[in-house]
Every structure is written in structure tokens, then in C-alpha cells.
Design goal:
This protein has 236 residues and is an alpha/beta fold. The chain is 35% helix and 19% strand.
Amino acid sequence: MDIQTQLTELLSNILSRPATDFNADTRLLGEMPDFDSMALMLLLTEVSQSFSLDVQDAGFDSETFYSVATLHTCCYELVPLALQRLTGRSVTLTHMPAFIPSAHNPYQQAGINYVEKKQDGAFVRLLQHIQQGAVVSLHADLFARDVNVNFFGRQTTAPAGPAMLSAFAGTPMLLAYGCIGENGRYQVYIESFMTEPVARTKQAYTEAMQLLYDRFERLILRYPEQWYWSFNRWRT
């Protein structure tokens, strides 16, 4: 199989598009909406495996930062708020509607840096923040097409962001979630989910996210009334 055919198949798998959508003249960055910075990092991973290339890291120091996975329980912005209180270096990924003025932006009010998820290069910007010592939290129970997982006995797909940040930054992966206690007070729990960085392979991302989704199931069953989800999570 020639290189162009291999690249075409990789792009087809990553973007869930037919291989006929790609040829030697296909423009990706800035031209194809599906090809965002997350897709770029997945492509780098697949290319490095398929062609035995060594993608060098950026010289990160994993003692100063973490990749934190979270989910939509109770007040689901509690995690970046708690991480800001603990470290003063909290960064998250979100979409802030244009109609919300900066004076009412809850992240700015709390001193939290956030990356606009719809901007070009969002995932690369998160990596840059980690390089500067940030603690990055990502909601990982969202629907995305990065990796295949089993969730409550049904096959679906999931984002690989927390695992990929751990892999490319060489940092441990934590799990954090908030819930409302019996006394009516909000509590945030932080678990040491993976003490070693995730390996930089698609299979490792899939395995890490499946382990995370297994833990999500247990948490949701423990706090079913606190998992906030109003969309079709298992759509295809």
C-alpha cells in the first residue's frame, strides 16, 4: 500500500468520512471543519505508529501539571473552580456564547483561563497551557468520535482529550467530580486515576478512556440524580 493510500485511510478513520473525500490536493487545516486540533493530534499519533516515526515531546515536567478528566454532575463547573482554588493554575475547555458579556463571564470572575472549544487550534492551546504549568480539566462524558467505548452496556464513541493530553504532555491523569452532600454543601473529589502518562498510541487512548467510562458508570449509579445530561449520548 502506498503512502497516499495509507494517509487517506487514516484520515477517513479519524474524521469518519469516506476515503473518496481525500486526495493529494485536499486542504485540511482551515478548510475542513472536522479537521480540528484534536484530529491533528490523532493523525500525528496514527502517522507515528504507521510509519515508525518518533514525535518528540516538548520537554514537559510532569511534577507541575496534570490532565484532569471530569463529568457533568451537579454544578459541573465546580471542578475548574476547585482546581483554581487549589493551584491558581486552572485551565478548561468550553464554549462561551457571544451574548455573555465579559463582566458576567464566570471563568474570568474566578480567574480561570479557558480555551474556546470552537476556535482553531484549541487542543494545541491546551498543550501550551500545560507546558506553562497549568492544571487542565476537560469534561469527558461528552459525545465525540475520537475513540470507541462501552457505556452502560451500549457501544458509543467518546472524546480522547484527557488521555491525549496525558500522553503528549507526559503527565498523570486525574479524575475529579463534584456532588451535593447530604448537608446541601457542594463537594469536589479528586482521584489519582492514572499515575503514569498514557502511552502515545490510539489503542492506549481507547483503553484509558474505557477505564474512565467504567468509573463514570459507577459514579453515575451512585449519584444518578446528579448526573446532568440532556442530549442523546448514544447517537451515531
